[in-house]
Amino acid sequence: MVDIADTPLKLDLDAEKITLLMRSALVEDASNVSERLGALFADIFVHDDNDVCITFDEDLWPEHKEPISALAVAAQLGINVDQELCLRELPFAWPGLGEHTKSTVEYTQTMLKAYADQRADKDVE
């Protein structure tokens, strides 16, 4: 005789899972490479009550851009989102280059060329 227990799955939303959902939504909200980098680079802090604070770098995420998908996900989860902007050291120079393309390959090519051009300019001096 075999007993089969049909136990319903329970969603356990901890800080790591909330952060993952919020970051995924931020990437979805991004419309170019700079914003995608901003979404990936954003600090997401989940408070004890599961409310979220997202800190964007102002060079990568436009000040007036609303993260619509992230706010919708938060609403579905029943949590509040605070947004902040900051300036910090970025991983690459010229963060605005990514505003002109959706392609990370094209962005990388343009960025590498800009770095190479800068080195060529310094050799001339």
Explain what you see.
The protein is built from 4 helices and 3 strands. The protein is an alpha+beta fold and 125 residues long. The chain has one domain. Strands 1-2-3 form a 3-stranded mixed beta sheet. Helix 3 links the parallel strand 2 and strand 3. Helix 1 packs antiparallel against helix 2 and helix 1 packs antiparallel against helix 3. The longest helix is centred in the C-terminal third of the chain and has 21 residues. The radius of gyration is 20 Å and the shape is elongated. The model has no long low-confidence stretch (mean pLDDT 91).
Secondary structure elements and pairings:
Elements: H1 15-29, H2 33-41, E1 43-46, E2 52-57, H3 68-77, E3 81-86, H4 104-124
Parallel strand pairs: 2-3
Antiparallel strand pairs: 1-2
